[in-house]
Prior knowledge:
Strand content: under 5%
Order of helices and strands: HHHHHHH
Distance between the termini: 27 Å
Oligomer: single chain
Number of helices: 7
Shape: extended
Mean pLDDT: 90
Number of domains: 3
Low-confidence stretches: none
Largest sheet: none
Helix content: 55-70%
Structural class: mainly alpha
Amino acid sequence: xxxxxxxxxxxxxxxxxxxxxxxxxxxxxxxxxxxxxxxxxxxxxxxxxxxxxxxxxxxxxxxxxxxxxxxxxxxxxxxxxxxxxxxxxxxxxxxxxxxxxxxxxxxxxxxxxxxxxxxxxxxxxxxxxxxxxxxxxxxxxxxxxxxxxxxxxxxxxxxxxxxxxxxxxxxxxxxxxxxx
Length: 180
């Protein structure tokens, strides 16, 4: 849905550049809500049953592939890939950019591997020790927090003494501006 909203915002801004993206998104949400409310009031929900499950599954799979392909260049530290382009172009340009991978790739891929490995270990231990399955489940749900804390520590140790985010050994968030 965010991809569709993003495309609508780009289309509207091409015609009306004076409109803020947030205002376009809010207007779109209001219009969508009004349409759904109207469908609910006239009891038109049964129309959804005519959408084939295969089409919904294909749309969800396509969206997942599109989102994942847009994240891979950043995960690998590849610059110069337009992640807003068509999905096939993003994948092709990412593959062409593989020789330009940076240390960011090691950070991203090891974090991703760590998340899946952590989940596998917790599932294995839950099967091996069924009486402690709940404990392993809760540890598994905390794996993201563990990985984030670990990589914050790694980033701190690797980038000690660096004052500007642009001088970091790998891409970091840097200073976060305060809200309005």
